[in-house]
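By convention, the token line describes the chain's fold. To illustrate:
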Amino acid sequence: MKKFLAFLVAMGIIVKLGDAYCFSKRNKPGEAVKGCIMDGKLYPFGEIARTESCFRCTCRPDAMLCCSLFHTPIGYDKENCKVIFNQKSCDYDVVQKSDPSKECFVYSRVG
């Protein structure tokens, strides 16, 4: 039963992160003494819910592992709409070129 529960948890993590853009940054020995540095900011060891550049990360002495909180729109009316990154929501807004106050329909995104 414990193995089955572990399998379900692992599959849930894979599904959750399946669409996210992920990367890792290896730390040199002795480099991460107080935490991990990303974009010039020091983050403490452990889980980081949201960095300033919109990633969810785990900081370890040997590496920083991160996945994006945003998904890039690829399916939308490119002729009449434009993509703008919204730093507050950590996501892309797709708006009309002629009136940026109006949103455009997005039918596909990639992470």
Strands lie at 22-26, 36-38, 41-43, 46-48, 55-59, 63-68, 72-75, 81-86, 91-96, 108-110. Residues 85 and 92 are 4 Å apart (CA to CA). The first helix runs from residue 2 to 17.
